[in-house]
Amino acid sequence: MNVLLLGPPGAGKGTQGTVLAEQLGVPKLATGDVLRDAVRAGTTLGREAAAFMNRGDLVPDSVILGIVKEELAKAPYARGVVLDGVVRTVPQAEGLARALGDLGRTLDAVVVFEVGEEELVRRLSGRTVCEGCQTPYTGREPGTTCEQCGGRLVRRTDDDPEAVRRRFQVYARQTEPVIAWYEADGNGGSGIGTCVVRVNAVGAIDDVTSRVQSGLARCRGSE
Q: Is 166 part of the annotated catalytic residue set?
């Protein structure tokens, strides 16, 4: 099964994606991870991406999706994949559909994790990280001491409450057109929509997992 996860920063995509991948018996693919791996490995596209990054420029969608496509062509992904962070805009959704189509695959479901703005502010502004060893913490104030190395805990700039609100607003503007595209035409211009599951992502991890599973069960029933 090929599943795409959508949701604002802090919605729990990483946690739920790992759980879902284990349940489905398929790998999870996060854009940032495969991009860093390609750069470290020095692949052709990895070197191209590194050139943009070294100039301080954004890596173009074409390069990122090319790296994702190369990864998806590998044997571990033959039975499916959970895609985390691959799509944020309609052009990226269209590019992913083309990449999957070239591999003879389609997207089976899109899971949208829904969380309100103030809940996200509460979650993300409560995060700190050690400026020395980068150990993450939740519920620890900036300026307190890291239990691992004795370093000072800091709040990342993009976890500041106002920054979180700006990130949420950007996501909100971008994501509704993406969801609408998947519902109407999510398989590379075929006119056939993809099953979209909207999940309330507030609550205990196990409860959210149960909602995801129920939604995907409905998708399978509609095939």
A: no
Q: What residues are paired with 111 via a beta bridge? A: 5, 197
Catalytic residue among 98, 122, 127, 198: 127
Q: Tens digit of pLDDT for each residue in 13-64?
A: 989 999 999 999 999 999 989 999 999 999 999 999 999 999 988 899 999 9
Selecting among 88, 98, 165, 198, the annotated active-site residue is 88
Verify whether residue 105 is a known catalytic residue.
no
127 is an active site residue:
yes
* Rounded CA separation 49/165 (Å): 29
Q: What are 87's two structure tokens?
A: 């799509």
The model's pTM: 0.85
Whether 21 contacts 128, CB under 8 Å: no
Per-residue model confidence as pLDDT tens digits over 72-128: 999 999 999 999 989 989 999 999 999 999 999 999 999 999 999 999 998 888 889
Helical segments of the chain, H only = 13-24, 31-41, 44-54, 61-72, 90-102, 117-125, 161-185, 205-222
The per-residue DSSP string of 161-198 comes to HHHHHHHHHHHHHHHHHHHHHHHHHTTTSSSPPPEEEE
Distance CA 157, CA 19 (A): 29
**Under 8 Å CB-to-CB from 148, ≥6 apart: which residues?**
130, 133, 135
Contacts for 127-136: CB closer than 8 Å, 24+ residues apart: 127/155, 127/156, 127/159, 128/153, 128/154, 128/155, 129/153, 129/154, 129/155, 129/156, 130/154
Closest CA to 85 of 208, 174, 214: 174
